[in-house]
Amino acid sequence: MFRLIAIVFLNCTFLNGGLSQGFLRVNDKDIVNDDGPIIIRSIGTGNWMIQEGYMMQSTDAGINTHTQFRNKLNEAMGVERTNEFYDYWLQHHFTKADVDSMKAWGFNAVRPALHYKWLTLPIEEEETTNGTIRNTWLNKGFDMLDELVSWCEQNEMYVIFDMHGTPGGQGKNADISDYDSALPSLWESKDNQDKLIVLWKKIAERYKNNPWVGGYDIINEPNWNVDGTGNPNGCGCESNKAIWDLHQRLTEAIRAVDDKHIIFISGNCWGNNYNGFDNHILNGYDDNTVLTFHKYWNSNHQNAIQWAIDMREQYNMPLWMSESGENSNHWFAEAIELFEKNNIGWSWWPVKKSRLNNVLKVTTNDNYHELINSWKDGQTPLSADETYKAIMEYAMAHEIDNCTVAPDVIFAMSNGSNSTATQAYAQHSTGEWIQCVNYDLGKDGFAYHDALSENIHEGDNKWAKWNTGNYYRNDGVDIGKHGGDYYVGWTEAGEWLQYTIRVDEAGQYNLELISAAAIQGSLVSITVNGVEQASNIELPSTGAKENWHNSVITKLELLAGEQKVRIKFNSGGTDIKAFKLIKI
What we know:
Belongs to the glycosyl hydrolase 5 (cellulase A) family. Helices cover 28% and strands 24% of the residues.
């Protein structure tokens, strides 16, 4: 099933995805390779090498960071079984099959989120000689990176290494970087900074001649009050001197062994506070450097990124939006359109997890939920054997052949530069039942309309669910599930759904619609190719949401060929499950 879907969606890949050749490098305000300017369209590997609590679904149990999760497993089932779990996780979570699929879906780069602990030891575990900390290198981690680079090379894709978890952790937002408040952070420890510097130098030495390594994203999302003013995450810092000094030291160490690869730098405040950089750059800065920024949960108007564009002009350096995601398909399409019309490449986060808004959806096993709940309430701990079974099944659920491919997410991302595009979700024909949840692919206003289709953290909509039922698709359309059937529910006046349907024979058709309404039915209208053919048709109250009723809307005129049929709610309240067009 997975392979079939991968092939089907080859027709909605990005333009020129994966056709690039040669080293990525900077040319004035552009990122280029041997073929000229390139838009980097990347996917982030998420919790493959660094586990964040929200992706592991453990935050409600108070387990937010990678190390907290591992320590909990050590406690619950022992070190040996925990090591076995991590060996399996690393081997199977992100594989060549994942990279092959990303290539097929149009991505031309992968941004692996790295944890330094797979590559070297924490300073607290290193031996010292005359006060100097030894640097122990862990071959397994470097072998993993070699393998990933090989997979990407075979697909003509770039790898951009993202240091997501630095020695000590780079942010008060501990979930992201595995920061432990009981130990010195990256910003509080010269030893941690020195370890990060020698680690990046080691990576650069290893890959300095590999053209499929796209560059080094040297510190992901710094968020620390390095100036001692403003909020704990560094958003109010004015000089950010500690941030820029470390970037300079890292750049010098990398350039001592590698002058070919791009260095991607990040400001404070989760990557977006570049205050003080103008003072820093006066001393001269590496000319193969790219400025990055991240974008989450704000609007997709031009003014949302104009600050970054102004910075690009000021410093004559390219931009890369190195992390975004965690929103609806509508938001994805509009964000990508915004980036690309401004000549900005991007990277999405993450490739897979147990939610709707990723290209690969993980179905969480029930006993893993039981495990997390047992950690949360603390009253009913699972046995070591039960813990082992649950965690290993959870690891297996992340294997690509066990994931659900999300065609709606792929379409939203692959058509971002043409965000008015729509496409049939499946092949629909007259005379057969069409599931209402299989409306066309595309964004709000083109494939459907819903009262809420994105999560913008403004006003009362912060953390709002665009899909109230939270099933099946990542659009604004609210989808529920009853028994084994999905349905469109929580309908409101003005909302509509579009279906592209193949009509073999022109003529008059009746539309049979299955609906349910607990209190009062809706009024609906039907349009065909933009022409209203049935107006204010009343759907019945059925007494309960699970009581389905068949209504017939008569005498629609359909031409032969591909027709676009819309069901519009003039008033809301009715759930709809399926419909069929029957020739009279």
